[in-house]
Specification:
InterPro entries: Pellino_fam, Pellino_FHA, Pellino_RING. Belongs to the pellino family. Keywords: Phosphoprotein. This protein has about 300 residues and is α+β, with helices and mostly antiparallel strands. The protein folds into two domains: about 190 residues, no CATH class; about 80 residues, no CATH class. It is about 20% helix and about 20% strand. The strands form six sheets. Strands 11-10-9-12-13 form a five-stranded antiparallel β-sheet, with no helix packed on it. The protein is globular and about 60 Å long. About 10% of the residues have low confidence.
Length: about 300
């Protein structure tokens, strides 16, 4: 009788363990299903970094002074001393892209990444603070900037349409802030709660040294082919568009010219998107040393104008 009771107790214990194990595995599966898949990006080549990124100018071998894709000051590439060490401005653990396991179209950008011991790594000079809910947040030293394309603005009034090319900064916790006064300033920008860190097709991610373009599978499927772009370019050039200032015909060339393309080369104003030929109207230097280009059509001020060319 004692043996039967002991056996019964043992069976109950085994059943309890199986139930606990089943519940635990169910919780693990639910957690895995709920959690997202991170894609760490940075300059580091450590095992936990999925995508190792180097500076654009470093990859191209350029030693000239230039700026990154997003807003920021130009930086020297070693000056006249070819033996001077040139440091990268991309963080070792720059950012994370978190992708939903169930819906791969949902991807979110977060600043900073995990080091080898699975801790969020921020430099000593990085900005850190505690939010109202008691959680810590911060920014990388040079910042991770994000720029969403303006979409679905047809139903908005003219006053509600957002400005083109408005860069924002993403925090470690995924919150969106306005840009800091300088790229590595210790004072963070203002919180923009109505904007999201969810990536869209065409979103730009500026790592301060390289700029990434986010494309979705649906966006790539709907993108025009090289042949369709070629045909559209031929139709555009056949229409003989004219510069509103020089009143001459503009032609989009097949490749970029090192000489500037001449008077027929079209340029686009980045602030408003208007296209014109090369001229000096509205071009002036600001007090901080930067250049400004006023569009003759809408009078919007752009920090730069760039050539329009076809890349095959």
């Amino acid at each position: 009788m004692i043996l039967e009771n002991e056996a019964h107790i043992w069976l109950l214990s085994c059943e309890k363990r199986r139930t606990e194990w089943a519940d635990r595995m169910k919780a693990v599966r639910a957690m895995r299903k709920r959690d997202s898949r991170p894609e760490p990006i940075g300059r580091s080549s450590e095992e936990q970094i999925d995508f190792t990124i180097v500076d654009t100018w470093l990859a191209s071998g350029s030693q000239l002074s230039s700026s990154s894709g997003g807003p920021g000051q130009s930086r020297a590439r070693g000056g006249s001393d070819p033996h001077k060490m040139i440091s990268s401005t991309i963080s070792r653990y720059a950012c994370r892209i978190i992708i939903d396991r169930e819906n791969y179209d949902k991807a979110f950008l977060y600043a900073a990444g995990f080091d080898s011991v699975k801790n969020i790594f921020l430099g000593e000079k990085a900005t850190k603070w505690m939010k109202r809910n008691g959680e810590m947040d911060g920014l990388t030293t040079n910042g991770i900037l994000i720029l969403h394309p303006n979409r679905n603005t047809e139903e908005l009034s003219e006053e509600d349409v957002p400005l083109m090319y408005v860069w924002r900064e993403v925090s470690v916790d995924g919150d969106i802030y306005t840009l800091r006064e300088t790229r590595s300033s210790n004072a963070r920008g203002a919180l923009v709660p109505e904007e999201t860190n969810m990536l869209q097709d065409g979103t730009l991610i500026d790592l301060c040294g390289a700029t990434l373009l986010w494309r979705t599978a649906d966006g790539l499927r709907k993108s025009p082919t090289a042949q369709e772009l070629e045909m559209a370019l031929d139709r555009l050039n056949a229409g003989k568009p004219q510069c509103p200032v020089n009143l001459n015909t503009l032609i989009i060339p097949k490749k970029k010219s090192s000489k500037g393309g001449g008077s027929r080369q079209p340029y686009v104003y980045l602030r408003c998107g208007h296209v014109q030929g090369k001229h000096e109207w509205g071009h002036h230097a600001l007090s901080n040393g930067q250049q400004s280009y006023k569009c003759p059509i809408c009078l919007a001020e752009s920090e730069r104008v760039i050539q329009i060319v076809q890349y095959v």
